[in-house]
Amino acid sequence: MDLPSTEFNEKGKRIQSHYVSNRIRTAKYTPLTFVPKNLFEQFRNVANLYFLLLVVLQCIPIFGVVEPAVSALPLMAILLITGIKDGIEDWRRNKSDARVNNSKVMTLAHWQNVNVDDNKSSRWHWLYIFMGFFCMLAGVENKYAHTYRMSLTSKKPAIKASADSSSRRSLTVDSSTASTSQHLQQPPKPANGSKKLLNTVRQRSDTFRSELSNMFKVQPRRPYRPGSIPHSVLYRTATGETASMRRPSSVNPAGIPCAERPPGEPPAPKCKVFWQEVRWQDVMVGDYVMLRNNDDVPADIVILSTSETDNLCYIETQNLDGETNLKARQGLAATGDLKTVHDCERARFYIESEPPHANLYQYSAALRWDIDQPEDNETTVSHQKTEAVTYNNILLRGCVLRNTEWLIGVVVFTGNDTKIMLNQGRTPSKRSKIQKETNPHVIANFVLLAIICIVSSVLDSVQFNDSGSAPYFDFGIRGYNASYDGFLTFWVTLILYQNIVPISLYISVEIVKTLVAYFIYSDLDMYYEKTDTPCIPKTWNICDDLGQIEYIFSDKTGTLTQNVMEFRKCTIDGVSYGQGTTEASVGAEKRLRGEKEFPGGTTDGSESGVSMTEDEDKMEKVKKQMYEKQQELFENKHVGANPTFGDLQFFEDLKNQDSAHAMAMIHFMSALALCHTVIAERPDEENPDFIEYRATSPDEAALVATARDLGFVYLGREANTLNLQVMGEFKQFELLNVLEFNSTRKRMSVIVKPLDSDRILMLCKGADSVIFERLCDDFGDQTELEKSQKRLQDATTRDLEQFANEGLRTLCLAYRFISPEEYKVWNKSYQEACSSIYNREEKVDEVCEEIEIDMLLMGGTAIEDKLQDGVPETIAELAQSGIRLWVLTGDKTETAINIGFACNLITSDMRMIILKADNRESTQKQLDDALKQVNTSDGQKVALVIDGTTLKYALEPATRERMLRIGMKCASVVCCRVSPKQKAQVVRLVKKGLKVMTLAIGDGANDVSMIQEANVGIGISGVEGRQAVMASDYAIAQFRFLRKLLLVHGRWSYLRTAEMVMGFFYKNIIWTFVLFWYQIFCQWTGSMIFDYSLVTLYNLIFTSLPIIFMGIWDQDLPAKTSLLYPELYRMGLRNDKFKMWRFWATTADSIFQSAVCFFFPYMLIVAGNPDKAGFISNGVYEIGTIMSSIAVIVANLFVGLALYSYTWIQVGIIALSILVYYAFVGIYAQFNTFIFAGHDRLFAVGYYWLILILTVFASFLPRVTVHYFLRVYFPYDNDIVREIELVQHKGRRESLAGRETGEKDSQ
Q1: pLDDT tens, 1277-1307?
Q2: Catalytic residue among 117, 555, 768, 1033
Q3: Alpha carbon distance 338, 403 (integer Å)
Q4: What is the spatial distance between Cα 516 and Cα 544, in angstroms, rounded to a whole number?
């Protein structure tokens, strides 16, 4: 199809000639942009800008820096290390991008894609290629880069793709389905020619232009018959006329190009179209793409045709949303005839598509093609046909084609326009709490720097005219008056005291947190073997926040529970079926008894105190007897390996099939086998009777699987025919419509017609609240039916409440018969709504509302979502550690309460407050009453339960504060029936209102908003998808792993980071103030007492490694001991180790130690005698070298005193850092420098070592004394536990060994 004239401007050039390339790039840098972009990123750090300013100042001669190049070494080292780290990370991303971009896919070769602008004929083509080369290097995607890539591709000859593959089923080109090139905008308008305008212009039958044309047109001899033109893009005229129009092709077949021949005719002799293999990055909008079984989808593709007879295909979306269940997608009806490459070439259509957006579950477009009007003997009105393109007709990039031999589609979105790329938004930028609290400390250091610089400049101005030797050593850098000299001194001392700001703090913390993230990833205790999933840190810079979490907000389904559904009970015709004890019923029993200890333990009890293990054994016997009874009634070869439902009475009641109740049971179970969208598979070729179901939700699969086990087997679907085996008898149903489930409707329906009957039946299942309001309430004169339905509704309501009290997830089933006349009218409206281009979902929902009325109730089902292993123990320990857990769930209040009891979230000694309101006034009253209750609880723990409606009003500005005050006084909070938006609002309320650290954990797409809102987001890699994991900061496989992540790794990270940051400030202040004290004796001229190489290497080499290693490996207590004392976590909640007073205490201590490090050597050496060889040791730089050695040793020993655990690696790295200092001085002193030559001799006299020992002892004496006093009289929690472990070390080891043995025995 040619482009319409509207696509060209007045000069005949394309208006929109470039679509987004399919080449994706997740890397941040390119070879051309790495250096400038990385430097820009690094210099956004204010500290780096500060040190860059200092480097510039030192290059100015008036400030007297002898070696300005050396002064740039620390900054250059930091920039280089950070750049290398960023480069390695980006190189890995580039490698991953290259693997994806160079993957192969088959597209149609030797045909014209009108969506791609061919500018080879342009005289600027070579310039486009030249500019495109640099655009590619810069990572810019535009028309120049596109032209450059196309020039490379055009140089390679098209290679015909192999029809067969060893890894796939055989596929021939002739049998393959082809897809048509499409244009995303308007269809072509005719060029000026001999044809009449009104006869050739495209006309829609419902437009004014069409009516105007018909007014002046000669009417055809025969009436227009729509059925004469097939609903296919291959047919553009009436079927009978096509032959007469195409008759010349049989006379001169070579005279008509292959693309212009009618469907079914052989290809032209010189037709060159075929499938070729191209790289993903070369796929373009409008390309025909052919996929084979197990192929990945390279772009967003509209399905044209497939190998299946009903034009269906099956896909796996695990890469997109993590779901492994197969999903069915439908090809378009108008393109189902595209079976060969020649059909693709001959088709003419275009697609009007909505613009790209990130919603994975919504797509709206329309496929249109023109029906031509012949010039002679017209029998056809020129018009246009349309077919709606929905989400069900599109394959998204990242999906995998399964169980489908081949598929042909047309590309609509490529590259960054695809939905998966639009959803790969960056994780919200988060900064840790300690990082935020470090900023005031850095500012305090800047203030301290400003003070000592001002003091130095003022005192230099005051002493400008004093007698002394300074004027003789100014070397032309002294000011000509006191004011100017003071001004210069300010900048000189700014350079001199630069190390007071820790340049290596940020990069060191980043290195530490990177390695901590690796250790978390490598922790085998958080590795889930069943799914081969470790704990994956995704945001590395907030690991210390894991040690300060005060509130946890958790989803229930899939997070606290397994999201592996088991059909446990049902109610049919008012009779309840299903035996066995659920975990939640144990919680209900605990709630009723009010006991602190329940027989059998937290999760091992039953209503009679019998252990869950004994109950399971009993259930196995029941199931065995039940299926023996089934075999007596009929043979069922399709029973699954692990049936979950058991009740001996079920088949007893089913025996008498003539009874009304038995018929109700058959209808109920048949409805379960029909009302769904599952896919039936037979994975075991040796056992064809074994049927496995793939469904979009585990609930649906559990329902159909239980129906299969009970003898109502869904065998599969052939086109629109559903095959069932009902109690051994084969039955077929025609599937007329599927009214799909969504979060608004909360129900799904199917409309079917038995092949042996003319009656049309609608089956509906959904939430009880939704189903009950759509039941029939006008029975006319059918009084018996009305009475039976009322009784059934009462009985079903009672049973469902009982199921909910046992913690089961409930659904209701209902049905109605539809007359053919009513169905015909409704189906027309439904098809029109489905074909709507705008607001399609809303229109479909409105039409569905019209048919889902006046239904008759059948019964209800109850499914158990079992708790994950270790959930009760984890919640109990988190509560013991001081963390408060809020559960935000969409379940009913009763279900949530009983799950809360089962998992230790709510205990029997708690006072439970339940808030249920219908309006704003009632909510305010209940909140006031609840606030009074929590204020008068007299120390008793309180649990709050609030439903979604009440929460909606409680989160309003007028009542928000009251809700917050109640919540902060409750030990546990359960919010029921909440929406995803409400989840985020609750997290925001607590985070902003209480100024506390929050953590949100969930596993589904509905949890993404709260995960992103919290300070730390945890995604559970479960069965609901990967949206939560993609949006999270940490991904774990089980809720119980949260215990070690917080109580061990989080606590360790908090303690290490706090000590490390304090250590950085300490070592920088002590070094800087040694230089400051020297200014007293050099008339505040900013003279240097150290060689500048020592100043440069102090932070970079001499003192960096010990403090980094402390941040990586230091442990106050082993992991197992930490888990024995969950209360240790409260240190992070109180922020014991990073309070402001500790910073000022550390600052004061470092200033004192700097004075000791300066004045002790100065007083003991300044009047000293020469050594035996006649060399003096009391020169300025000699004393400076001695002081620098003492400062280096004191700074490294500070780390030693701050350590909790002394391992060989920690002690070795401290010793190594000190030895590196002496080695550097020994080597550097051998060079004949004016200042430093021969300084190695200073360490060869015993007097130096005596001064060293005395100074170090005097430096640490106050610190050690204060530490002893605090640990004896004001100990931290870990100090107490460390002492307990030290005193009871042997007993504790035996206890730990016993616990390990017990755990192994239990496993």
Answers
A1: 989 998 888 777 654 555 555 555 554 444 4
A2: 555
A3: 20
A4: 10
